[in-house]
User: What shape does this take?
Amino acid sequence: MNRSQRILPVYTGDVSGACSALFELGGMVVIHDPSGCNSTYNTHDETRWYDYDSLIFISGLVERDAILGNDDKFVRDVVDAALELRPRFVALCNSPIPFITGTDFAALCKMIQARTGIPCFYVPTNGMHDYTVGAGGALAEVAERFVRPAAVRAGTLNVLGVTPLDFAEADVRGLPNEARAAAAPGARDAVGGATGASGAAATGNATGATGELRAFVQDAGFELVSCWAMGSTLDELARAAEAEVNLVVSSVGIPAAEVLRRRFGTPYVVGRPQGLFAASLAEALRSVAAGSGSRLMPCKDARMSSGDATRVVVGEPVAAGSLAASLELADGEPTRVVCATESAFGLLAPHDVYADGEEEVEAALVESRIVYADAFYAPVCPPSARLVCVPHFAFSGRQAWLQ
Assistant: This one.
């Protein structure tokens, strides 16, 4: 079978991505799917679920309703729950079954909003894409519907594209020298183990990365308006038009950045602050804020270009490109990115590779000497290649904290 995965897991799905993006915003997310599936979308893919609640529900779709249709029951259940719980908004998410049967979610949203007076929108998921599609679409809906026009305040910034799927880090208490130089979050050497490690078990941290991002924003000379969407409320996100520039730290944030650029003319810079690359990223932010352009992608454009690079970084393109840029600044050796997620959005340099499936990843790594990737990529790395583990929660889940 073409595109089948015989070794590698797949990335977190689009429905889970949408739930993760909206988790902290005070809304009610309803996934139209059979009962029992909520744990798949949330408990397994959402590290915040154990700390506090979020209004995320499953419709309890049954076989008869899927075949014959029963939209009245779906609308009635959503309306009853919304009137009782009074969320800030209602978001509907599709799953494979109603996608196949052609449920009209746009019409359902209009019916629910008319009966409740609560904003209701549809995040176009179908369970057949990865988390970058669902989370990116959800944040774009928020940017379209809730951000209010405002006067721009100099020296202010939004951070876009933050969810635990990309920013749930592992505390491994000791990094190999090369990963330490690049400041790859949670990186360690898969061959030699964590050099200088204390022996303590790795622990998951879903929110520590937002503190690092806020510190970077402050060090770069900016005031943070909102962080999309961890550690900020919907009211703070609604003030996003005040920002002078947007920092997009994952491909999840690109759709929202484009909406804010179209609606308010806010320029944006794409990159994740890592190691030596953080200084280049800060300079790009100051340059765009000074009026040098509408968007810059230093995670791609600041890198060296070589088709013969034998050092490879695998993963989501913004994180991988930023790590590659940091590595190149550290030692001057060109580094290639292998993008394994769907939302590349023009984020790849000329010699980077978009790998749409397991076989493409394996082919892209065949000449590699050293690979920076999640440990779950080890089976498709060449036997002669050295793997430096960079855990990615959206790929290996809680196993990332134990690698």
Q: What stands out?
A: Residues 170-206 have pLDDT under 50 and may be disordered.
